[in-house]
Amino acid sequence: MYADQTINLIIETMTDKLFIFDTTLRDGEQVPGCQLNTVEKIQVARALEALGVDVIEAGFPISSPGDFNSVIEISKAVTWPSICALTRAVQKDIDVAAEALKYAKRKRIHTGIGTSEYHIKYKFNSTREEIIERAVAAVKYAKKYVEDIEFYAEDAGRTDNEYLAQVVEAVIKAGATVVNIPDTTGYCLPSEFGSKIKYLFDHVDGIHNAVISTHCHNDLGMATANTMAGVLNGARQVEVTLNGIGERAGNTSLEEIVMILKSHKEIGIDTNINTRKIYPSSRMVSGLMNMPIQPNKAIVGRNAFAHSSGIHQDGVLKNVQTYEIINPQDVGIDDNSIILTARSGHAALKHRLSSLGVELSEGKLDKVYEDFLKLADRKKEIHDDDILVLAGAERSLNHRVKIDYLQVTSGIDVRSVASLGLDVSGEKFSAAAEGNGPVDAAIKALKKIISRQMTLKEFTIQAISKGSDDVGKVHMQVEYQGNYYYGFGANTDIIAASVEAYIDCINKFKIEN
């Protein structure tokens, strides 16, 4: 824990601008089952631009044609944020990244290499000297294409400080404008990570010629704390994602860092973020990626501003600041949200979708409104997550495999039986099966029609709220021919949602009948 006088000294020497580097579309999209198509990535990129992020990491162009094309299209779609493309310290990677960035108004190449002993010995079978040579060569080569070069020292969190300082000094001299110090494995303690950043400022010649960046993972739940420790010790760029999504346990949450700085004005650091767009941006990403936000998630979770304790409720009613340090409206949560029911019209639905960051054409809005009325007939009240599910459902309209009908019989001491009809590329198929419960029976009927060797690996059910008429979300992982496919379904009937999720998996690999 820092002494108060140390914190005050740090605060006094700070500049007032923190650059927000958003990697939702690169590191965030690595979450299994959360991949977006190019159109969806453009939608997120435009929301990030409206939110006010300084840099959008749009992808890893060498990794796939899809990533390459996404970087190109995102570069065309947004205006003022820098568009960043990730590479390894490999010339071919850098060539491809430069080509993908050709339409970007402001372009950055993000290249780097592992610097910890784990990476040097076991990943690269190399030496410290060779790693520095490769790092410098990559920066100099990228500099031929663009002026703005960011270098990442992968696994810097577990790299000894003296060697890390040598790497950082070398790449800055080679022309790096930003140096990224990642806690790649989420291992560091906040005091340790803060000390690491301070060590670099104290020991790297020319460090003020570059911006020092943090990129912290949340494996031990310390990503936000480590990022703030880095900022307090001089880092002026933070690499973050909406909702904290990302590899393994995730990345530092954009919304947490931004609102920490907004709440602690004594720190004296500001960002370009329009905080009132945080909540709609968060919900949009959650909906597009079919990735629920945990209810107790800081800033954007469903319960972030909910008070159930009698003592808390009493305090909030007397003065909201007794238990709320953030005004919900500051992050875009409207206390007076329009409640949607079966009597709501097009305008109310369009308004609610817009507040959630979803813009639909009139044709798609009409289709969503039809589905909304059907759902509203079954539910007393429609929640935001229900709306996002309906808005995302149109993405599956062009799938090859669709449900025609599903009928299930089940009960106590009764063998469950399911009868299922599918439309497979315009052809009609049907089958019936028994199972250990209605979901098992329905999936067995599905497998009779889609007769391939598929194995269910994961099956997760999530209710959106607490009512018996609630929409249930189902996430599935299916193994087929050695590959894993992720699917999603949502329905007030959990059995139907389960079948929809399985079919969503199937639609992601080739089926022959």
Explained architecture:
This protein is α/β, with parallel strands linked by helices and 513 residues long. It is built from 17 helices and 14 strands. The chain has helices at 4-12, 38-51, 65-77, 91-100, 117-123, 128-143, 161-174, 190-203, 223-232, 254-263, 278-289, 310-318, 346-355, 362-378, 384-393, 438-449, 494-506, and strands at 19-22, 55-59, 82-86, 107-114, 148-154, 178-183, 211-216, 237-240, 401-411, 414-424, 427-435, 454-463, 472-480, 483-491. The strands form three sheets. The chain has an eight-stranded parallel barrel, surrounded by seven helices. The chain has a three-stranded antiparallel β-sheet with strand order 9-10-11, with helices on one face. It has a three-stranded antiparallel β-sheet with strand order 12-13-14. The longest helix is centred in the last third of the chain and has 17 residues, at 362-378. It starts with a helix and ends in a 7-residue tail after the last helix. The model is unreliable at 9-15 and 307-317 (pLDDT under 50).
